[in-house]
Protein backbone atom coordinates (compact mmCIF):
# COMPACT_ATOMS: atom_id res chain seq x y z
CA UNK A 1 0.00 0.00 0.00
CA UNK A 2 1.59 3.24 -1.14
CA UNK A 3 -0.49 6.21 -0.09
CA UNK A 4 1.78 9.22 -0.26
CA UNK A 5 0.05 10.63 -3.34
CA UNK A 6 -3.25 11.17 -1.50
CA UNK A 7 -1.80 12.63 1.67
CA UNK A 8 -2.76 16.23 0.93
CA UNK A 9 -6.37 15.38 0.14
CA UNK A 10 -6.77 13.26 3.27
CA UNK A 11 -5.09 15.83 5.49
CA UNK A 12 -7.70 18.33 4.41
CA UNK A 13 -10.54 15.84 4.94
CA UNK A 14 -9.47 15.12 8.53
CA UNK A 15 -9.57 18.75 9.63
CA UNK A 16 -12.01 19.54 12.41
CA UNK A 17 -13.43 22.93 13.40
CA UNK A 18 -11.22 24.86 15.79
CA UNK A 19 -12.38 26.66 18.88
CA UNK A 20 -13.86 23.57 20.58
CA UNK A 21 -14.09 23.33 24.37
CA UNK A 22 -10.79 22.59 26.05
CA UNK A 23 -11.97 19.23 27.38
CA UNK A 24 -11.94 16.60 24.64
CA UNK A 25 -13.61 13.22 24.14
CA UNK A 26 -10.66 11.25 22.81
CA UNK A 27 -11.53 8.12 20.85
CA UNK A 28 -8.89 5.42 21.32
CA UNK A 29 -8.97 2.26 19.22
CA UNK A 30 -7.28 -1.02 20.20
CA UNK A 31 -7.78 -4.78 19.98
CA UNK A 32 -7.41 -5.59 23.68
CA UNK A 33 -10.66 -7.44 24.36
CA UNK A 34 -9.82 -10.55 26.42
CA UNK A 35 -10.34 -10.48 30.18
CA UNK A 36 -6.74 -9.70 31.06
CA UNK A 37 -6.40 -7.19 28.24
CA UNK A 38 -9.63 -5.39 29.16
CA UNK A 39 -8.36 -5.00 32.71
CA UNK A 40 -5.15 -3.43 31.38
CA UNK A 41 -7.08 -1.02 29.12
CA UNK A 42 -9.11 0.06 32.14
CA UNK A 43 -5.86 1.09 33.84
CA UNK A 44 -5.10 3.45 30.95
CA UNK A 45 -8.64 4.81 30.67
CA UNK A 46 -8.97 5.40 34.42
CA UNK A 47 -5.63 7.20 34.61
CA UNK A 48 -6.49 9.40 31.65
CA UNK A 49 -9.97 10.25 32.94
CA UNK A 50 -8.81 10.92 36.50
CA UNK A 51 -5.65 12.88 35.76
CA UNK A 52 -6.73 15.02 32.81
CA UNK A 53 -9.87 16.98 32.04
CA UNK A 54 -10.43 14.83 28.96
CA UNK A 55 -12.40 11.62 28.48
CA UNK A 56 -11.15 8.30 27.08
CA UNK A 57 -13.75 7.04 24.58
CA UNK A 58 -13.07 3.35 24.14
CA UNK A 59 -12.98 2.00 20.59
CA UNK A 60 -12.24 -1.69 21.12
CA UNK A 61 -12.09 -3.80 17.95
CA UNK A 62 -12.76 -7.49 18.53
CA UNK A 63 -10.12 -9.88 17.24
CA UNK A 64 -6.38 -9.59 16.79
CA UNK A 65 -4.18 -7.01 15.12
CA UNK A 66 -4.66 -8.90 11.86
CA UNK A 67 -8.35 -8.01 12.07
CA UNK A 68 -7.99 -4.56 13.58
CA UNK A 69 -5.16 -3.07 11.49
CA UNK A 70 -7.11 -2.95 8.20
CA UNK A 71 -10.04 -1.28 10.00
CA UNK A 72 -7.75 1.28 11.65
CA UNK A 73 -5.92 2.05 8.41
CA UNK A 74 -9.17 2.29 6.44
CA UNK A 75 -10.62 4.83 8.85
CA UNK A 76 -7.51 7.00 8.69
CA UNK A 77 -7.39 6.84 4.91
CA UNK A 78 -11.12 7.48 4.69
CA UNK A 79 -10.88 10.78 6.56
CA UNK A 80 -12.51 9.45 9.76
CA UNK A 81 -9.51 9.03 12.04
CA UNK A 82 -9.65 8.10 15.68
CA UNK A 83 -7.65 10.34 18.01
CA UNK A 84 -5.29 7.58 19.10
CA UNK A 85 -4.78 3.97 18.17
CA UNK A 86 -2.85 0.97 19.36
CA UNK A 87 -0.67 -0.75 16.79
CA UNK A 88 2.35 -3.00 17.11
CA UNK A 89 5.81 -1.52 17.32
CA UNK A 90 7.18 -2.12 13.86
CA UNK A 91 6.46 -1.19 10.26
CA UNK A 92 2.66 -1.45 10.17
CA UNK A 93 2.16 2.35 10.18
CA UNK A 94 5.10 3.21 7.94
CA UNK A 95 3.03 4.17 4.89
CA UNK A 96 0.65 6.30 6.97
CA UNK A 97 3.61 8.18 8.45
CA UNK A 98 5.17 8.69 5.03
CA UNK A 99 1.86 10.07 3.80
CA UNK A 100 1.82 12.67 6.59
CA UNK A 101 -1.21 11.20 8.35
CA UNK A 102 0.35 10.66 11.80
CA UNK A 103 1.20 13.26 14.43
CA UNK A 104 4.89 14.03 14.92
CA UNK A 105 5.75 13.49 18.61
CA UNK A 106 9.40 14.46 18.39
CA UNK A 107 9.13 17.73 20.32
CA UNK A 108 7.32 16.03 23.24
CA UNK A 109 9.77 13.12 23.24
CA UNK A 110 12.74 15.48 23.39
CA UNK A 111 11.19 17.62 26.13
CA UNK A 112 10.50 14.57 28.31
CA UNK A 113 13.76 12.79 27.45
CA UNK A 114 12.21 9.57 26.17
CA UNK A 115 15.54 8.46 24.74
CA UNK A 116 17.01 8.54 28.26
CA UNK A 117 14.59 6.04 29.81
CA UNK A 118 13.02 3.94 27.04
CA UNK A 119 14.90 0.69 26.73
CA UNK A 120 16.02 -1.15 24.75
CA UNK A 121 16.79 1.78 22.45
CA UNK A 122 15.43 -0.03 19.40
CA UNK A 123 11.90 0.40 20.78
CA UNK A 124 12.10 4.13 20.19
CA UNK A 125 13.90 3.51 16.91
CA UNK A 126 10.88 1.55 15.65
CA UNK A 127 8.77 4.65 16.31
CA UNK A 128 11.19 6.80 14.33
CA UNK A 129 10.86 7.60 10.64
CA UNK A 130 13.44 9.79 8.90
CA UNK A 131 14.67 11.06 12.26
CA UNK A 132 11.22 11.97 13.65
CA UNK A 133 9.23 10.14 16.33
CA UNK A 134 5.65 9.14 15.53
CA UNK A 135 4.56 6.68 18.21
CA UNK A 136 4.74 5.88 21.90
CA UNK A 137 5.91 2.37 22.85
CA UNK A 138 3.94 1.32 25.91
CA UNK A 139 5.20 -2.18 26.65
CA UNK A 140 7.51 -4.96 25.61
CA UNK A 141 5.68 -8.09 24.54
CA UNK A 142 7.57 -11.17 23.53
CA UNK A 143 6.23 -14.19 21.71
CA UNK A 144 9.01 -16.36 23.07
CA UNK A 145 7.09 -18.26 25.77
CA UNK A 146 5.54 -21.67 26.41
CA UNK A 147 2.91 -21.95 29.15
CA UNK A 148 2.35 -25.23 30.99
CA UNK A 149 -0.33 -26.43 33.42
CA UNK A 150 1.73 -28.07 36.15
CA UNK A 151 -1.21 -30.01 37.58
CA UNK A 152 -1.89 -31.79 34.28
CA UNK A 153 1.53 -33.39 34.41
CA UNK A 154 1.69 -33.98 38.15
CA UNK A 155 -1.79 -35.53 38.32
CA UNK A 156 -0.90 -37.96 35.53
CA UNK A 157 2.44 -39.00 37.00
CA UNK A 158 4.48 -37.09 34.41
CA UNK A 159 7.46 -34.82 34.90
CA UNK A 160 6.68 -31.18 34.17
CA UNK A 161 8.58 -30.45 30.93
CA UNK A 162 11.46 -28.02 30.98
CA UNK A 163 11.69 -27.61 27.20
CA UNK A 164 9.92 -28.27 23.90
CA UNK A 165 11.53 -31.68 23.37
CA UNK A 166 10.25 -32.97 26.72
CA UNK A 167 6.72 -31.78 25.92
CA UNK A 168 6.85 -33.57 22.55
CA UNK A 169 8.02 -36.76 24.28
CA UNK A 170 5.15 -36.51 26.79
CA UNK A 171 2.52 -35.99 24.06
CA UNK A 172 1.50 -39.68 23.66
CA UNK A 173 0.97 -40.08 27.42
CA UNK A 174 -1.05 -36.87 27.51
CA UNK A 175 -3.24 -38.14 24.68
CA UNK A 176 -3.82 -41.35 26.65
CA UNK A 177 -4.98 -39.20 29.57
CA UNK A 178 -7.42 -37.34 27.26
CA UNK A 179 -5.37 -34.14 27.47
CA UNK A 180 -4.56 -32.12 24.35
CA UNK A 181 -0.77 -31.72 24.34
CA UNK A 182 -0.74 -28.29 22.67
CA UNK A 183 -3.53 -25.71 22.57
CA UNK A 184 -3.68 -23.17 19.80
CA UNK A 185 -5.95 -21.27 17.46
CA UNK A 186 -5.44 -19.96 13.94
CA UNK A 187 -4.27 -18.31 11.75
CA UNK A 188 -1.78 -15.89 13.31
CA UNK A 189 -1.30 -18.09 16.38
CA UNK A 190 -0.02 -20.90 14.20
CA UNK A 191 2.62 -18.69 12.61
CA UNK A 192 3.49 -17.51 16.12
CA UNK A 193 4.42 -21.08 17.02
CA UNK A 194 6.65 -21.34 13.95
CA UNK A 195 8.25 -17.99 14.61
CA UNK A 196 9.02 -18.83 18.24
CA UNK A 197 10.58 -22.08 17.09
CA UNK A 198 12.77 -20.08 14.70
CA UNK A 199 14.79 -18.87 17.69
CA UNK A 200 14.06 -21.60 20.24
CA UNK A 201 14.96 -24.45 17.90
CA UNK A 202 16.95 -22.79 15.11
CA UNK A 203 18.79 -20.24 17.22
CA UNK A 204 19.02 -16.46 17.19
CA UNK A 205 21.74 -16.39 14.54
CA UNK A 206 19.56 -18.25 12.06
CA UNK A 207 16.50 -16.17 13.01
CA UNK A 208 18.34 -12.94 12.20
CA UNK A 209 19.94 -14.36 9.07
CA UNK A 210 16.52 -15.36 7.72
CA UNK A 211 14.44 -12.32 8.70
CA UNK A 212 16.95 -9.47 8.86
CA UNK A 213 19.58 -10.49 6.31
CA UNK A 214 17.07 -12.33 4.06
CA UNK A 215 19.70 -15.05 3.58
CA UNK A 216 18.73 -17.94 1.30
CA UNK A 217 21.59 -20.01 2.73
CA UNK A 218 20.12 -19.60 6.21
CA UNK A 219 16.68 -20.64 4.99
CA UNK A 220 18.15 -23.82 3.48
CA UNK A 221 20.35 -24.57 6.51
CA UNK A 222 20.04 -27.56 8.84
CA UNK A 223 19.07 -25.22 11.65
CA UNK A 224 16.09 -23.89 9.71
CA UNK A 225 15.11 -27.42 8.69
CA UNK A 226 15.02 -28.34 12.38
CA UNK A 227 12.54 -25.49 12.92
CA UNK A 228 10.13 -26.87 10.32
CA UNK A 229 10.55 -30.40 11.69
CA UNK A 230 9.59 -29.20 15.17
CA UNK A 231 6.67 -27.32 13.62
CA UNK A 232 5.60 -30.59 12.02
CA UNK A 233 5.65 -32.16 15.49
CA UNK A 234 3.42 -29.36 16.75
CA UNK A 235 0.76 -29.95 14.09
CA UNK A 236 0.40 -33.52 15.39
CA UNK A 237 -0.09 -32.28 18.98
CA UNK A 238 -3.13 -30.03 18.54
CA UNK A 239 -6.83 -30.90 18.49
CA UNK A 240 -8.96 -30.94 15.35
CA UNK A 241 -11.03 -27.92 16.47
CA UNK A 242 -8.17 -25.42 16.64
CA UNK A 243 -9.05 -23.45 13.50
CA UNK A 244 -10.65 -20.11 14.30
CA UNK A 245 -10.14 -20.40 18.06
CA UNK A 246 -9.27 -17.17 19.87
CA UNK A 247 -5.90 -17.15 21.61
CA UNK A 248 -7.40 -16.51 25.04
CA UNK A 249 -9.74 -19.49 24.61
CA UNK A 250 -6.65 -21.64 23.99
CA UNK A 251 -5.04 -20.14 27.11
CA UNK A 252 -8.14 -21.02 29.11
CA UNK A 253 -7.86 -24.62 27.88
CA UNK A 254 -4.47 -24.76 29.58
CA UNK A 255 -5.79 -23.05 32.72
CA UNK A 256 -8.68 -25.54 32.95
CA UNK A 257 -6.46 -28.56 32.31
CA UNK A 258 -8.05 -29.51 28.98
CA UNK A 259 -4.68 -28.86 27.35
CA UNK A 260 -1.17 -29.21 28.70
CA UNK A 261 0.63 -26.32 27.03
CA UNK A 262 0.39 -23.30 24.76
CA UNK A 263 3.03 -21.38 22.83
CA UNK A 264 1.89 -17.79 23.16
CA UNK A 265 3.25 -14.35 23.96
CA UNK A 266 3.52 -13.05 27.49
CA UNK A 267 0.10 -11.39 27.18
CA UNK A 268 -1.24 -14.85 28.11
CA UNK A 269 -0.02 -14.10 31.62
CA UNK A 270 -2.89 -11.66 32.10
CA UNK A 271 -5.36 -14.54 31.61
CA UNK A 272 -3.62 -16.70 34.23
CA UNK A 273 -3.73 -13.75 36.64
CA UNK A 274 -7.45 -13.16 36.00
CA UNK A 275 -8.06 -16.85 36.81
CA UNK A 276 -6.20 -16.56 40.13
CA UNK A 277 -3.36 -18.83 39.00
CA UNK A 278 0.07 -18.60 40.62
CA UNK A 279 3.25 -18.80 38.56
CA UNK A 280 5.47 -21.69 39.63
CA UNK A 281 2.60 -23.38 41.48
CA UNK A 282 -0.29 -23.73 39.03
CA UNK A 283 1.57 -22.97 35.83
CA UNK A 284 5.08 -22.66 34.47
CA UNK A 285 6.47 -20.37 31.81
CA UNK A 286 9.41 -21.32 29.62
CA UNK A 287 11.08 -18.47 27.73
CA UNK A 288 12.50 -19.68 24.45
CA UNK A 289 10.57 -22.95 24.91
CA UNK A 290 13.12 -23.79 27.60
CA UNK A 291 15.89 -24.06 25.00
CA UNK A 292 17.03 -20.53 24.24
CA UNK A 293 16.01 -17.86 26.76
CA UNK A 294 15.80 -14.77 24.61
CA UNK A 295 13.05 -12.20 24.14
CA UNK A 296 12.04 -10.38 21.01
CA UNK A 297 11.35 -6.74 21.72
CA UNK A 298 8.06 -6.29 19.98
CA UNK A 299 5.04 -4.96 21.76
CA UNK A 300 2.41 -2.31 21.53
CA UNK A 301 2.62 1.36 20.68
CA UNK A 302 0.14 4.20 20.36
CA UNK A 303 -0.05 6.35 17.26
CA UNK A 304 -1.94 9.62 16.97
CA UNK A 305 -3.57 10.29 13.59
CA UNK A 306 -3.18 13.89 12.45
CA UNK A 307 -6.26 15.93 13.37
CA UNK A 308 -6.20 19.66 12.69
CA UNK A 309 -7.85 20.72 15.91
CA UNK A 310 -5.68 22.30 18.60
CA UNK A 311 -7.73 21.05 21.57
CA UNK A 312 -7.61 17.48 20.26
CA UNK A 313 -3.91 17.77 19.53
CA UNK A 314 -3.20 18.89 23.08
CA UNK A 315 -5.26 16.00 24.46
CA UNK A 316 -3.31 13.61 22.24
CA UNK A 317 -0.03 14.90 23.65
CA UNK A 318 -1.33 14.57 27.22
CA UNK A 319 -2.22 10.93 26.54
CA UNK A 320 1.18 10.29 24.95
CA UNK A 321 2.92 11.73 28.00
CA UNK A 322 0.79 9.68 30.38
CA UNK A 323 1.51 6.41 28.59
CA UNK A 324 5.24 6.60 29.34
CA UNK A 325 4.87 7.94 32.90
CA UNK A 326 6.40 5.84 35.66
CA UNK A 327 3.11 5.25 37.51
CA UNK A 328 1.20 4.11 34.44
CA UNK A 329 4.07 1.94 33.24
CA UNK A 330 4.07 0.00 36.52
CA UNK A 331 0.31 -0.40 36.90
CA UNK A 332 -0.42 -1.16 33.24
CA UNK A 333 2.32 -3.73 32.72
CA UNK A 334 1.66 -5.58 35.98
CA UNK A 335 -1.94 -5.95 34.82
CA UNK A 336 -1.14 -6.75 31.18
CA UNK A 337 1.61 -9.27 31.92
CA UNK A 338 4.01 -7.37 29.67
CA UNK A 339 7.35 -5.79 30.47
CA UNK A 340 7.74 -2.01 30.93
CA UNK A 341 9.56 0.18 28.44
CA UNK A 342 11.24 2.11 31.26
CA UNK A 343 14.34 0.91 33.05
CA UNK A 344 13.94 3.31 35.98
CA UNK A 345 10.82 1.94 37.72
CA UNK A 346 10.18 -0.46 40.59
CA UNK A 347 8.77 -3.80 39.41
CA UNK A 348 9.17 -5.55 42.77
CA UNK A 349 5.57 -6.78 42.54
CA UNK A 350 6.37 -8.79 39.39
CA UNK A 351 5.52 -12.49 39.59
CA UNK A 352 7.94 -15.32 38.81
CA UNK A 353 7.34 -15.21 35.05
CA UNK A 354 7.67 -11.45 34.77
CA UNK A 355 10.82 -11.68 36.86
CA UNK A 356 12.27 -14.13 34.32
CA UNK A 357 11.48 -11.68 31.54
CA UNK A 358 13.01 -8.73 33.37
CA UNK A 359 16.19 -10.70 34.00
CA UNK A 360 16.51 -11.66 30.33
CA UNK A 361 15.79 -8.08 29.30
CA UNK A 362 18.65 -6.83 31.47
CA UNK A 363 21.14 -8.74 29.30
CA UNK A 364 22.03 -7.37 25.89
CA UNK A 365 22.53 -10.94 24.61
CA UNK A 366 18.97 -11.84 25.63
CA UNK A 367 17.26 -9.20 23.48
CA UNK A 368 16.49 -9.42 19.77
CA UNK A 369 14.24 -7.57 17.32
CA UNK A 370 10.79 -8.91 16.47
CA UNK A 371 9.74 -9.95 12.99
CA UNK A 372 7.43 -6.89 12.89
CA UNK A 373 10.55 -4.76 13.07
CA UNK A 374 12.30 -6.60 10.22
CA UNK A 375 9.61 -7.69 7.76
CA UNK A 376 7.02 -5.58 5.97
CA UNK A 377 3.32 -6.33 6.47
CA UNK A 378 2.94 -8.12 3.15
CA UNK A 379 5.80 -10.52 3.89
CA UNK A 380 4.41 -11.19 7.36
CA UNK A 381 1.03 -12.00 5.82
CA UNK A 382 2.56 -14.42 3.33
CA UNK A 383 4.45 -16.21 6.10
CA UNK A 384 1.23 -16.54 8.12
CA UNK A 385 -0.44 -18.07 5.07
CA UNK A 386 2.43 -20.50 4.60
CA UNK A 387 2.45 -21.51 8.25
CA UNK A 388 -1.30 -22.15 8.21
CA UNK A 389 -1.11 -24.13 4.97
CA UNK A 390 1.69 -26.29 6.39
CA UNK A 391 -0.07 -26.77 9.72
CA UNK A 392 -3.40 -27.78 8.22
CA UNK A 393 -2.06 -30.21 5.60
CA UNK A 394 0.60 -32.81 5.01
CA UNK A 395 2.89 -30.32 3.26
CA UNK A 396 6.46 -31.58 3.44
CA UNK A 397 9.29 -29.77 5.18
CA UNK A 398 11.10 -29.50 1.83
CA UNK A 399 8.13 -27.78 0.20
CA UNK A 400 7.75 -25.38 3.14
CA UNK A 401 11.41 -24.37 2.94
CA UNK A 402 11.13 -23.74 -0.81
CA UNK A 403 8.10 -21.51 -0.28
CA UNK A 404 9.78 -19.65 2.60
CA UNK A 405 12.81 -18.96 0.40
CA UNK A 406 10.54 -17.56 -2.31
CA UNK A 407 8.66 -15.28 0.14
CA UNK A 408 11.77 -13.91 1.84
CA UNK A 409 13.52 -13.28 -1.48
CA UNK A 410 10.76 -10.80 -2.35
CA UNK A 411 10.64 -9.07 1.06
CA UNK A 412 11.30 -5.33 1.26
Topology:
Layout: H1 7-13, E1 25-30, H2 35-51, E2 55-60, H3 65-77, E3 84-88, H4 94-98, H5 106-112, H6 114-117, H7 121-125, E4 128-129, E5 132-133, E6 135-137, E7 145-149, H8 150-155, H9 164-176, E8 180-183, H10 188-200, H11 204-211, H12 216-219, H13 222-235, H14 247-256, E9 259-263, H15 268-274, E10 283-287, E11 295-296, E12 300-303, H16 310-323, H17 326-336, H18 352-361, E13 367-368, H19 377-391, H20 397-409
Parallel strand pairs: 1-2, 1-3, 8-9, 11-13
Antiparallel strand pairs: 3-12, 4-5, 6-12, 7-9, 7-10
Helix pairs in contact: 2-17, 10-13, 10-19, 13-20, 19-20
- Count of distinct strands: 13
Distance between the termini: 13 Å
> What is the global morphology?
globular
Query: Structurally, how many domains make up the residues?
Result: 2
Mean pLDDT: 90
Tell me what portion of residues adopts beta-strand conformation: 5-15%
Spatially, the strands of the biggest sheet line up as: 2-1-3-12-6
Main beta sheet strand tally, sense and closure: 5 strands, mixed
Q: Going by CATH, what is the homologous superfamily of the largest domain? A: Periplasmic binding protein-like II
CATH class of the largest domain: Alpha Beta
Structural class: alpha/beta
Quickly give the CATH architecture of the largest domain.
3-Layer(aba) Sandwich
Q: Might you state the CATH topology name of the largest domain?
A: D-Maltodextrin-Binding Protein, domain 2
| Total number of helices | 20
Radius of gyration: 21 Å
Helix content: 40-55%
Unreliable spans: 1-20
Amino acid sequence: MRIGTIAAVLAASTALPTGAAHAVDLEVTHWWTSGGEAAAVKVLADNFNENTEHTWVDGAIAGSGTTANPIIISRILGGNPMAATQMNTGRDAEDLIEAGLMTDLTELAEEEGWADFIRPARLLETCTFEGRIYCVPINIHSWQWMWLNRHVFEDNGLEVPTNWQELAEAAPALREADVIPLATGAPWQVDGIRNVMQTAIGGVETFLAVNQDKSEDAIRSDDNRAVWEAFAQAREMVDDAYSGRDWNVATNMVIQGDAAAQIMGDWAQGEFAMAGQEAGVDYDCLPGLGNNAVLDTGGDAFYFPLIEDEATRQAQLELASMLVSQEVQVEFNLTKGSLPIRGDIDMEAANACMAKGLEILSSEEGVMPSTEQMLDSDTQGQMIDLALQFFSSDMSVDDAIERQAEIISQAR
